[in-house]
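[job 4471] stage=fold_predict status=RUNNING
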Amino acid sequence: MSNEYELNATVRTDKGKGASRRLRRLNNSIPAVLYGAGKDSVSLTIAHKDIAKAIETEAFFSRIITIKVDGKKEQVVIKALQRHPAKPFLLHADFLRISADQAITVRVPIHFLNEDKCVGVIISAGNIIKALNEIEISCLPKDLPEYLEVDMEEIDLGDSVHLTDITLPEGVTSVALVQNADNDMTVASVAAPKAIEEEVEEEEEDLEGLEEGEEGEEGEEGEAGEGDADAEDKSGDDK
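[job 4471] inference complete, writing structure tokens
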């Protein structure tokens, strides 16, 4: 896979929370860490505007990134990105070095296809419910996909798409399924609109109530019949 993303960084020697705050406030940069591949971790400084622009593209999170540290290039993937809880600011980034012969674990986005042609939506007026928007995969760097596809066209009302239904590229495995074959999580499903579901539930409750009422009436009739029989027996005795 080609490297389409490149970031410039410098080694950071001033560490600590106070230093990080000054870095963000005075230099409009964020602290970052580069680690992995059997090498020492390195504290970095990256311009906020550069990484903020890069993350506007979805593929940034599932592509090999070239990071230039004081002129030296490293091949990495982004492993963590800390955002400000209330403001549109990035606070910290973690980058993992990669080796061509070592598998990496990355989360890749899911692209849902043919949602407008979905059988359960067109014919049954259902709604597509997306349980997952990304999945964790493991592969060699050269096999890293930008995204995975899920075709919703043939999914009917009440049906679901699971992890095992996703066709993975050669050399790519699902981390969840490798860990446990029973981890076949639901990716998406087609469900009836909420209003219809509530209407069906009400109809079922009404039907249950009606059936209970009919059972009660049958019981009363049975008791009345026994009473009549007793009356007839007494009448016969009087005669």
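[job 4471] summary: The helical segments are 17-27, 48-54, 119-122, 175-179, 194-238.
[job 4471] exit 0
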